[in-house]
Amino acid sequence: MHKIITLPLVAILVMATLSAHADNISSLDDSHHINRLPANKQAETQLVVDLGWDSKYVSEGRDNLDGGGITWGTIAVQHGNLNIYATGGRADSQDYSEWNFGLEYTMSLADTVEVSLGYQRLEFYGDERCSDNELFASLAYQAQTWLIPSLSYTYSTEAGGYFIEASIHSPWQLSQGLTVTPYITQAFDFQYVTEEHQGVNHFQFGVEAEFLISERLALSGHFSHTLAQQDIKLEARAEGNEASLDQTYAGIHLTWNF
Prior knowledge:
Blueprint: E1 45-54, E2 58-59, E3 62-63, E4 70-79, E5 82-91, E6 97-110, E7 113-125, E8 129-141, E9 148-156, E10 161-169, E11 172-175, E12 178-190, E13 198-212, E14 217-228, H1 230-238, E15 247-257
Antiparallel strand pairs: 1-4, 1-15, 2-3, 4-5, 5-6, 6-7, 7-8, 8-9, 9-10, 10-12, 11-12, 12-13, 13-14, 14-15
């Protein structure tokens, strides 16, 4: 059985945490880890609790479930530039659940450049029991508040391969408390998902929106679409899969910041 890899918290989780501060590089979303807390320069401890639901469990351009969506719950603690988190997910239409535990350290190389390094442990429960360890890193550049390119890298010890995503986000604060962020992502697989095929994996685009209900409570959502590329198409052809390989999905999250 091919294991399901990576977190999907995806696109949303802690973008909702203070991401109204669109000029902070840390508010970028990421499909592999959930540490999107802005840098805490006062070295105070913050607690974030997030509850969310996605209409599909999509990661690496693939729907990991036979059908239905997935509910997520996350607790993240930040002290200074260090984030520690635990995420649990449970499918709503089949017997599948997972846990993710990780930590990440973020540092600023310059006023416009931010780097993050981290590790996470993944535990999967379903028809088969699986686990994985991942090392990840990300680089974001912000010379303009409305155009933020970023690059993320994830290495799987179980697969012995890595996954790369190059993204561009464009945050726009439309009104007090409301931020809308269209984005595009190009992804590459190098023995991370499939051992036989390497190279371009999928192209993804969508829009994310966040509304600050109060200083400590935020409601966010996303609508995303993926276009299957070589790695996904070759994998599907080898498995005799003639179904549509593109994915359209959406999600909603409610986030508390303490």
